């Protein structure tokens, strides 16, 4: 019976490990796609279609004329929000809420990378202990075991804040006295997916750490 319980525990750990790895990979992929694409906000105004789409780092226009420009200038194509091309429109193209969302998104990417490194280190430690038939748990492993879930849960929360900030403020793109109706695009959807995957990965890692602790406790009894 004891062996049967140990086998079930090992299988549960293996399944949780695989699911955690998959969710972490999906979270990173979705977050990178969200940052790399410019369809967080897209135009749905058929009559006024010179605004095309907006991302965290770029904005796209088609023959858009900014009424306060001197001299007259038409804006076409996609350009970085901080580029000289948009220098006269930077005040409304890069408001405080968008800058905050961008900073939090970059921090989230860094945390995802850190969390992935922690997860890989834990995987290597667990594999080495299994191969060497060792039950000793070092302080480093304990620290990594506690840090991993926390990093991914915090990352999920940060990404959720990014989604909320952008979703709440980007319903309309304001240009002083001119408004362009828009709707949230697929880039924002990828960010929402990244948030969900990161948060669930953190929860799975908590369960995985608990199972590993139980395995170590049981093996120390025999």
From TrEMBL:
Keyword annotations of the record: Membrane, Transmembrane, Transmembrane helix
Gene3D superfamilies the UniProt entry points to: 1.20.140.150
InterPro entries, sorted: PMP22/EMP/MP20/Claudin
GO cellular component, one term: membrane
Protein location: Membrane
Annotated transmembrane regions: 12-36, 99-125, 146-167, 187-210
Superkingdom, natural source: Eukaryota
Pfam families (UniProt xref): Claudin_2
Membrane topology value: Multi-pass membrane protein
Main location: membrane
PANTHER family: EG:80H7.2 PROTEIN
Protein name (database record): DgyrCDS1120
Organism: Dimorphilus gyrociliatus
Source species taxonomy: Eukaryota, Metazoa, Spiralia, Lophotrochozoa, Annelida
């Amino acid at each position: 019976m004891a062996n049967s319980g140990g086998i079930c525990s090992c299988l549960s750990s293996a399944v949780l490990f695989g699911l955690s790895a998959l969710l972490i990979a999906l979270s990173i992929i979705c977050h990178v796609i969200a940052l790399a694409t410019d369809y967080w906000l897209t135009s749905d105004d058929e009559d006024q279609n010179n605004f095309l789409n907006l991302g965290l780092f770029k904005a796209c226009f088609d023959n858009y004329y900014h009424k306060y420009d001197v001299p007259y200038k038409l804006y076409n194509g996609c350009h970085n929000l901080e580029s000289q091309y948009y220098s006269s429109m930077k005040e409304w193209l890069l408001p405080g809420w968008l800058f905050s969302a961008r900073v939090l998104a970059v921090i989230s990417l860094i945390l995802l990378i850190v969390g992935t490194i922690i997860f890989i280190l834990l995987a290597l430690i667990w594999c080495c202990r299994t191969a060497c038939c060792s039950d000793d748990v070092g302080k480093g492993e304990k620290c990594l075991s506690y840090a991993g879930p926390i990093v991914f849960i915090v990352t999920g929360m940060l990404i959720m804040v990014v989604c909320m900030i952008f979703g709440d403020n980007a319903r309309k793109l304001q240009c002083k006295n001119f408004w362009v109706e828009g709707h949230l695009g697929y880039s924002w959807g990828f960010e929402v997916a990244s948030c969900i995957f990161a948060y669930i990965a953190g929860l799975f890692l908590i369960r995985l750490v608990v199972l590993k602790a139980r395995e170590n406790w049981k093996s120390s009894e025999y």
